[in-house]
């Protein structure tokens, strides 16, 4: 609107100026010379001193004398004067035509100016360039005010919800926290597999806190031109600050926050570094409790640059994992709330069949089923529609997708994780096993056991041996249950861990009596070599001895192992209380 008014205003001004210019031109033509009385002029005409006369549309004439002088005089005989002058041998030129043409040209030019200005106000010419430039350096954010997504819209993910609730409270009551000198975590990272509801969770934080939500993707910042990404970051934070409290959500943070100079990185990238630095600078720039929370999401926490994860930056890391059976059931119920389900649909049974499905995939499956039902138009979504949707989704999966993991693989995972958990509880009861699951996470390929050792300054030799036992518990369980021919690659990380521990025990901590109190790295640095083979042999033998002990423990407690594995197959996740009671209800020997 502003532009339109401005253009019209400029157009009118130009018109006035042009008309004034014509007038001046005309006036100058007429009055730019000395005036001479008509009598005198006629006398000069008769005496042959006049060379040329311009007759104007008005009642004036301008004469040019043979000596070069120019005079203006009156023309009392408008219509007859030209012939008389011509008869007297004086050149005559009428100024009317020229004026008409000049006026025509000027009017056309004026019309052109006005049209051009009108076009401009529509935004297609002069201002367009400016807007393009603005667009280039500014970021288009998916800003949603008045978010109506709340925690209730997220099924499962209870641990993540708990970890983020205080941030909502922080945004709502910053004073409460600053009274205690607490600062709002500046950045939060949600990590986990695709489609597990990371974006949903970030939206819910904004929704719960009742603040605007800005969403954009890390890849939006990574541009071809150095500096553009950084200026986009500044632009974004400027916008956010104008809003006061808000949630900024950066999806795919790895696009700009990958480890620098790592093997994952394909080489130096000035643009990305500058953008990342700008982000870090902006984050450290805002006041402690300003109420701006930056939430980033990634599928892989391990590839992010350390600078990003340091205290005061993205220092809170929250895993948003794949849902277990109960969470899947909750997600299915949530997405079926407003759908007409037939009586024959059993959502719990569906949850059982959809192991390793993410929330997004479950939502998609229900939607497909609703589409099938709509096509049939029988009034409700029947089990057949759901079966068809499930089949379509599983059939469309890539083979490597986890949804199509066979029940045999699940069984192997259940025994492997059960093995770790049981060995932990038997050999190191002071350790906590807060959660055992066969749902894969970034922490474990097949599943994982969350094993927390007691805090202590020193590790005893027996602690280190126990840690090796816990690490080898998975492989040992596989071998006992499935046979030595069927052991799997699932133990790769465990073997790496066990090797590290035993190597350190022998060559650094002097914990093996036959190898002595020697630091073999120092020997090596001093040019004394030759012990390598002996160290390798010693590691091998010690690990085998420990492994045999682990197998013995598990064999003796096979019933409990089976019980844990079966419970895992049924429930997918077991928490510490249930694990403890499973172990307590069976006679165990360590
Ligand atoms: P990506 O890593 O691919 O960006 P994401 O983790 O951000 O994925 P979302 O985009 O939040 O996943 O999830 C997609 C959709 O899946 C959601 O809009 C929602 O419909 C559904 N969904 C995912 N998880 C849940 C959940 N826990 N409860 C309810 N719905 C869910």
CATH A-level architecture of the largest domain: 3-Layer(aba) Sandwich
How is the main sheet built?
6 strands, mixed
| CATH classification, class level of the largest domain | Alpha Beta
Taking the alpha carbons of the first and last residues, their distance comes to: 82 Å
Proportion in helices? 40-55%
- The CATH superfamily of the largest domain is known as P-loop containing nucleotide triphosphate hydrolases
Q: Could you describe the 3D structure shown?
A:
This protein is of the alpha/beta class. β2 and β3 form a beta hairpin. The protein is elongated and about 145 Å long. The strands form three sheets. The chain has a six-stranded mixed sheet with strand order 6-8-9-10-7-11, with helices on both faces. The protein has 24 helices and 14 strands. α10 packs parallel to α12, α19 packs antiparallel against α20 and α19 packs across α22. It folds into four domains: 116 residues, Signal recognition particle alu RNA binding heterodimer, srp9/1; 178 residues, P-loop containing nucleotide triphosphate hydrolases (Rossmann fold), CATH 3.40.50.300; 71 residues, Orthogonal Bundle (Helicase, Ruva Protein, domain 3); 178 residues, Methane Monooxygenase Hydroxylase, Chain G, domain 1 (Up-down Bundle), CATH 1.20.58. Bound molecules: adenosine-5'-triphosphate. Adenosine-5'-triphosphate (ATP) binds next to α8, α14 and α16.
